[in-house]
Amino acid sequence: MRISAPHVLHVAQPVEGGVARVVTDLVAAQVAAGLRVTVACPEGGTLTDSLRASGGTTLRWDATRAPGPRLPDEVGRLKRLVRDVRPDLVHAHSAKAGLAARLAVHGRLPTVFQPHAWSFEAADGVVARLALGWERFGARWATRVVCVSDAERRTGERCGIAAPWQVVPNGVDTGRFRPEGDSARSGVGPLVVCVGRLCRQKGQDVLVRAWPEVVRRVAGARLVLVGDGPDAELLRRGAPASVEFAGAASDVAPWYRAADVVVLPSRWEGMALAPLEAMACARPVLVTDVDGARESLPPSHQPSCLVPPEDPGALARALTALLRDEPLRAALAAQARAHVLVAHDLRHTTGAVTDLYRELLGVVPTPVVSN
Predict the structure, then answer these.
(1) Which DSSP letter does residue 16 get?
(2) Most buried among 10, 127, 199, 350, by the most CB within 10 A?
């Protein structure tokens, strides 16, 4: 007798940053749970390399990061890929893959859409209205919309997206991200670290504008931006000498461990991974009050570690206060690690997604056996 495990097709674009990390973690956990897993994604980025060790199958799906004139061809290629792979369930990640996958599948298979932050928050004017209009319309072809925070879900509801919702908070590998281990610390003086793609979403431009005030009030303070992206050159031109650009890092944990404070001044998020990773490394974090940020923090952190987005003055004041108060930082660090272990362990996240698949398929994933 031969019993086949359900076959899941993940569709991903973009292929770097937090989306790539989430997909990689899900694939590894699902393969370990006995599912058959295929990932359709463009070449490049970090995702394909990260998936090689996971046991899943990767298929090339050429697609640009944003919708454009190539969309019909991209949807057509994805239709053919779905026909050839014959998955039992499709899980689409982020706006572009969610758009193409829902158009390709049209509700003929159980379809999970995970926005990883809403696309209409990333745009203005006509583009934002078009993105919101699509999300309202495309919700009919999602068996479940998975949000990484209640705030992300509430934003969708408030904007008129009528969907079958499920909230699964992001999680991180608390074995990989831990207080003990290598540190990237060098030099002297207080160190602030920001990890993330150098782009408008992550708000490093606001941080660079805030930084001279921090240096004026905290002697010797240094800022390291870890990551790469389209805004790298613009940020370099506007940054003072106390700002270091470390570039992309294959392992960011040593940077978290080096930091006195980790900051992420995002303009929008679903629930960013960098603050969770930093807290797992027992570091205090400072984030902007955007979707998912408040939920990612322990309640006791919110007065000290939450600032309005796009406010360099508030960001400078909060960073200065944290850097000047070592006992507070030590208390926040200890609480942070304990919070992540309880609320954001990766095993909880991957288990919840696998349980969702079981619910939608009406079966228990079982490894292939023969006799």
Answers:
(1) S
(2) 10
- Characterize 170-187 residue by residue with b for buried, 16 or more Cβ atoms within 10 angstroms of its Cβ, and e for exposed: bbbbbeebeeeeeebeee
Side-chain-side CA neighbours of residue 204 (13 Å): 29
DSSP codes of every residue in 204-220: HHHHHHHHHHHHHHSTT
pLDDT in tens, 43-77: 988 888 888 877 789 999 999 988 888 999 999 99
Contacting residues for 51 by C-beta, under 8 A, at least 6 apart: 23, 24, 27, 39, 58
Helices (H), the chain: 17-32, 47-51, 71-85, 94-105, 125-138, 150-158, 204-217, 232-238, 253-258, 273-280, 293-296, 302-305, 312-324, 326-343, 346-361
Q: How far apart are CA 272 and CA 293, in angstroms?
A: 7
SS3 category, 265: coil
The Cα 251–Cα 138 span in angstroms is 36
Sheet containing strand 57-60, edge to edge, reads 57-60, 36-41, 7-12, 89-93, 111-114, 144-147, 165-167
| Look-up of token digits 């050429």 | 62
Q: List the Cα angle 195/22/76 in 5-degree steps.
A: 120
Question: For the purposes of burial, counting CB atoms within 10 Å of the CB of 65, is it exposed (0-12), middle (13-18) or buried (19 or more)?
Answer: middle
Put residue 318 in one of left, alpha, beta given phi > 0 → left and psi -120 to 50 → alpha.
alpha
Q: Which two tokens stand for residue 307?
A: 């600032």
> ω before 14 within 30° of 0 (cis)?
yes
Neighbours of 198 (CB within 10 A): 24
Tokens of 315: 């960001």
Which residue, chain included where needed, has tokens 């937090």? 18
What rounded mean pLDDT belongs to the chain? 93
d(CA 29, CA 369) in angstroms, rounded, equals: 19
Q: Is the pLDDT of residue 367 over 80?
A: no
pLDDT of residue 369: 38
Residues sharing a CB contact under 8 Å with residue 83, sequence separation 6 or more, in sequence order: none
Average pLDDT over residues 142-164: 97
